Amino acid sequence: MVSTEACNSRSFSWLVKSCLPNPHPDARRKSGFVSRAVAEKVPPDNQRYCASISSLPDDLLLECLSRVSPSSLPSVALVCRRWSRFVASTELYSLRRANGHLRPTLYAVAVSDFGVLSASHGLEPGRPWKTVLFTGAAPAEGLEASSLAHARLVALDSSVYVLGRNASMRYHTWSETVSPRAPMIHHRKKFAAAAVAGRLYVAGGCRAAAVEEYDPASDTWHVVSEAPRKRYGCIGAAADGVFYVIGGLRIGDGCRTAAAASSSTFPPRGEAHVYASSMDLYDVGAGAWMRGRQVPNGGCVVAACGAGGHVYVLASHAVELSFWRCEGRRSAGAAFGEWGRLRPPPVPAQVRLDGTVRFCCVGVGESAVALVQVVGSIDDLLRRSGRSERGHRDGLVLVYDCRSGEWNRGPDLPEVLSRAGCVSAEC
Hints:
The protein is of the alpha+beta class. It has helices spanning 14-17, 26-30, 36-40, 58-65, 73-76, 81-87, 90-98, 137-140, 258-262, 269-276, 379-384; strands at residues 104-112, 115-121, 130-135, 152-156, 159-163, 168-172, 177-181, 192-196, 199-203, 210-215, 220-226, 231-232, 235-239, 242-246, 249-250, 278-283, 288-294, 300-307, 310-316, 321-327, 339-342, 358-363, 368-375, 397-401, 407-409, 421-426. The chain has a 4-stranded antiparallel sheet. A 4-stranded antiparallel sheet has the order 4-5-6-7, with no helix packed on it. The longest helix has 9 residues, at 90-98. The model is unreliable at 1-6, 27-39, 135-142 and 253-267 (pLDDT under 50).
């Protein structure tokens, strides 16, 4: 019987072929390149065997795969089931990280009735986005686009998790495969989500105050705490083992009546302002809530992320935008939680980041923050940047260098990705 994990060596690269034994061991002996003593040790024909790549031990095979370029990993996963399992394993991820072969990459993912569309970029100057289309992936796996509407994206190691209202899926960036995952316990919309200590955490976006934790190993969700405030339209971030629930509006305890829905005082103006500029901090290790934080000068938090032990916040005011950094490293002692105002992104002052224009804030590695325009049109900004055409609805990418404090223009997001979510993963 042929093993189901046997490998087909017809299209192996030079790296793989270098691991295979010489199929013609007599050639060198006949040509005189091997001494007589060595030649006498060659077994007769009836005792020889032909080894395959599948005979390599796991540790040696993992060592070889850890040196494969990121662009070749999708092809490696197609060689056989064993290789596919290794590409998706935490062992290979840990080995590539230990050898310094990982790099942060910006990903944008959009889900539609036609499938899942992904684009990636390493923020290298002059290089375009790489797009991958999984045609019919969502319907084939029982995932409807409506179930993933308003989904949040969370990156964990080399995987991107798409968390929708009543469905979830995982996009593995190395093997470029999509698979369904267990949905959240509570149906949520416009909620906060982040990865902390190898697990996913979500809060807000529903009537319940429950904070849920997702374990990727068992593909299960559990309620681990109750949030101090019920929020809708909030944003999640993580720094130094803390899950941040930022901004949004208050969700009332009772049902919202038609009169309340039309009233400009629901929620109360002052209370809505407090929610829109505040942060709740959940210590994952201790399982307890810490003292909350307030964004200076008020404003409405419209985008946030964690990077390099800090929390970066983009706030929208009546006539301007502000960009802030909060110290998230608890080792900083008394400086923990302190705010510093940074140079705002080069967006025209006339632009208000609301439902018309929306950015996604992503921490890319330890020293960069990317703002990706996912909704809206900024023709004025495009003209200032040297582009004469109008009507480019979305896709503007601005990159903030955390070391120099400067903003740079990145390559625009491909126009085929409409209302995509963005996140940073290591590959």
